[in-house]
């Protein structure tokens, strides 16, 4: 099975499961009166919408380049990641504001029975989905599946934290600390949003770097070290290189000024140098665009 087909199958399954969790979370949140569970359900609903968008992107990525999109559709992947991360960040910020307002208003009572049952079931299910998708993604290394896997981990951590908080509140109920229980739900919601928000923000920053074609430091270092070594071996007069990564697409251009001694070398010798560069960079395949140009005139750099 091709990687894109496997991606689509995983995302379809994840989408159905996420919709189920979202509906359950919103329903239980309303029944129990828990804002944090409603937030968990809304988080899952938004995640389901983004999973649907990711599914459409994987179908595009599986298509051949067209006359209008001659470099393929790799650039769409970081755009989706940036959009997804932005929406999740806004949701976390909005939930944090509501949680703070709830605490300032004196908190609220909730039905712990419904809340604890929900937290137990969803925690187990989300951890199961996280470990399963992480194992599968080790083989295909998809950024979209990776983001979806992180979402399952976030959901699992949220549900586990809810379970812990509701358990503590249930224990405190009826004791001299019972007056604190109305603050448990908004307090947990505020804490969760502060813990969760760095993850989507990090995804946005990484995706924007790709959209802006910012060269990853590790990639630039790899190409620079490679060209320094080849220059020492062949005596190149000068060289320049341009490299970036957009989604799963890797783009590398290398321009080399040959010395006078190599002015009449054959194509096979130049192809041998190309092969060395290709092997050192790695990731050969349809997602890599490698150009190696040779010249005697430095103005072509």
Descriptive account of the structure:
The chain has 301 residues and is mainly alpha-helical. It has two domains: 3-211, Cation efflux protein transmembrane domain (Alpha-lytic protease prodomain-like, Up-down Bundle); 217-300, Cation efflux protein, cytoplasmic domain (Alpha-Beta Plaits, 2-Layer Sandwich), CATH 3.30.70.1350. The protein has helices spanning 3-32, 35-61, 76-104, 112-140, 143-172, 181-196, 198-211, 217-234, 267-281, and strands spanning 238-246, 249-257, 288-295. β1 and β2 (249-257) form a beta hairpin. The mean pLDDT is 84.
CATH fold descriptor of the largest domain: Alpha-lytic protease prodomain-like
Structural class: mainly alpha
What's the CATH C level of the largest domain? Answer: Mainly Alpha
Which range does the strand content fall in? 5-15%
Side by side, the strands of the main sheet go: 1-2-3
By DSSP, the count of extended strands is 3
The CATH H-level superfamily of the largest domain is Cation efflux protein transmembrane domain
Percent of residues in helices comes to 55-70%
Structural domain count: 2
Termini separation comes to: 42 Å
Number of helices: 9
Mean pLDDT: 84
Shape: elongated
Task: Specify the biggest β-sheet.
Answer: 3 strands, mixed
Known CATH architecture of the largest domain: Up-down Bundle
């Amino acid at each position: 099975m091709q990687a894109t087909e496997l991606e689509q199958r995983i995302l379809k399954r994840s989408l159905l499961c996420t919709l189920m969790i979202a509906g359950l979370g919103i329903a239980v949140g309303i029944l129990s009166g828990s804002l944090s569970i409603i937030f968990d359900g809304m988080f899952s609903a938004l995640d389901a919408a983004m999973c649907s968008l990711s599914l459409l992107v994987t179908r595009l990525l599986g298509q051949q380049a067209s006359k209008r999109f001659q470099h393929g559709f790799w650039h769409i992947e970081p755009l989706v990641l940036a959009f997804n991360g932005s929406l999740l960040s806004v949701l976390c910020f909005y939930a944090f504001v509501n949680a703070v307002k709830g605490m300032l208003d004196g908190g609220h009572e909730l039905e712990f029975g419904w809340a604890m049952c929900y937290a137990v079931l969803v925690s187990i299910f989300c951890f199961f989905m996280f470990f399963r998708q992480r194992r599968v993604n080790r083989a295909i290394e998809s950024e979209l599946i990776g983001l979806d896997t992180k979402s399952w981990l976030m959901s699992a951590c949220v549900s586990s934290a809810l379970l812990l908080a509701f358990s503590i509140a249930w224990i405190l109920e009826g004791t001299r600390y019972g007056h604190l229980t109305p603050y448990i739900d908004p307090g947990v919601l505020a804490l969760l949003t502060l813990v969760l928000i760095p993850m989507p923000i990090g995804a946005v920053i990484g995706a924007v770097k790709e959209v802006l074609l910012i060269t990853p430091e590790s990639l630039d270092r790899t190409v620079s070290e490679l060209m320094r070594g080849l220059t020492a071996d062949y005596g190149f007069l000068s060289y320049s290189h341009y490299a970036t990564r957009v989604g799963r697409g890797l783009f590398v251009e290398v321009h080399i000024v040959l010395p006078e001694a190599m002015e009449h070398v054959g194509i096979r010798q130049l192809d041998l140098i190309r092969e060395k560069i290709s092997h050192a960079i790695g990731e050969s395949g349809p997602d890599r665009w490698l150009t190696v140009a040779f010249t005697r005139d430095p103005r072509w750099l």
